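call fold(seq) -> tokens
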Amino acid sequence: MLLAIDIGNTTIALGVFDGRSLVKEWRARSEREKTADEYGILVLDLLRFSGLEPASIDGIIISSVVPPLTPVFQELSQRLFGRQALVVGPGLKTGLPILYENPGEVGADRVVASIAAFEKYGGPCIVVDFGTATTFDSVTAKGEYLGGAIAPGIRISAEALYLRTAKLPRIEVVKPKRAIGKTTVASMQSGIYFGYVGLVNHLIGEISRELGGQAVTVVTGGFGEQLGPEIRGAYHFEPHLVLEGLRIIFDRNAGEKAGD
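ret:
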């Protein structure tokens, strides 16, 4: 079985694949101060609680946008499973040409999600990941990563209003009943939610136009289920897109670097 680990700024997603099937998936808080021992206990507990034996894990792959945690999980992989984890980055076969001016600047999760989206839906496609930041990534009909856009996540936007003003409160990010708010909280929710929907739809429209107007939109990330229905036009919601992409990359590199 394959253990796929996606280390994000806010959460860490872990998934176990049996062949092409995702059999278990968990999320944990991303904490830079934790050690390999602490995360190791967590991973072992998750596996055993789900009825999975650690000995059944014979491959590990990691995607990380938190550099301090990457070696922590590499150490964990070696100590708990006796396996050298594959880490998404230079030298790993992805099958996705990166046409960014500096390919090393592209976050690993953006590359991985784009690979999974293209594998499932073809191109051109737009991947919208509603994470800590909201990212928009574009893939050509030939399967080339072009680039995209990065915007503050909707929760970051709401927190910024609270932190950078003297009298505005912290609010829950929910869809308000109407655009005209009649309280401070309702007005903030309107501005954040409907303003964010406008941002998302406008960027999708602009990117789609640059791709030729026929791009498939694929949505993932923590707020994807809530905000996806606000997208104008058809879209596909894939909550496990990055984990699926990690499986695809692992399969493309199987036997080359995935051994003991």
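DSSP finds seven helices and ten strands in the chain.
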